[in-house]
Design brief:
The protein is mainly α. The protein has one domain. 78% of the residues lie in helices and 0% in strands. The termini are far apart.
Length: 121
C-alpha cells in the first residue's frame, strides 16, 4: 500500500475540510454569539485564544497521520476496517460540529447543547 504523506492527506481530506477548517472557522464565527460549549476546550480558548484550538486540531491531524501510516502498513486483516471507521467517525464529527457552530452563529441555538440539556434533565 502507498502510505506517502500526500496519499494519506488525500485520504483524510474530508476530515481536514470539516473537522479542522470547517469547525475552526465556524467556531470563530459562532463565538461572538455565545461561548464554547465544550468544557474541555473552553479553558483552552479562554487562555490561548482561537489559535490554541487550531493548534490542537493540527496536533490531532498529526496523530491521525501517524495512525493512518501505521494502518496502511499493517498486514492484519482488520486494519482497513479500523482505518475506514476512524476516517468516517472523525469526518462525521467534523460535519456535525461545523453545522452546530453555524446554527449558533446564525440563530444563537445549538442542537448539541439542546440534546445534552435533554439528556441531563
Amino acid at each position: 500500500m502507498n502510505s506517502s504523506l500526500r496519499s494519506i492527506l488525500w485520504e483524510i481530506r474530508i476530515i481536514i475540510l470539516f473537522y479542522v477548517i470547517g469547525d475552526w472557522l465556524s467556531t470563530v464565527y459562532a463565538l461572538p454569539n455565545g461561548q464554547e460549549g465544550n468544557v474541555l476546550l473552553s479553558p483552552l480558548i479562554s487562555g490561548s485564544g482561537i489559535y490554541g484550538l487550531l493548534l490542537l486540531k493540527l496536533l490531532f491531524v498529526a496523530l491521525l497521520l501517524v495512525n493512518f501510516y501505521v494502518l496502511n502498513n499493517c498486514r492484519h486483516e482488520i486494519a482497513p476496517y479500523l482505518k475506514e471507521g476512524l476516517k468516517s467517525s472523525v469526518a462525521i464529527l467534523g460535519i456535525v460540529l461545523t453545522a452546530n457552530n453555524i446554527l449558533v452563529g446564525l440563530y444563537d441555538w445549538s442542537f448539541l447543547g439542546s440534546m445534552f440539556a435533554v439528556l441531563n434533565a
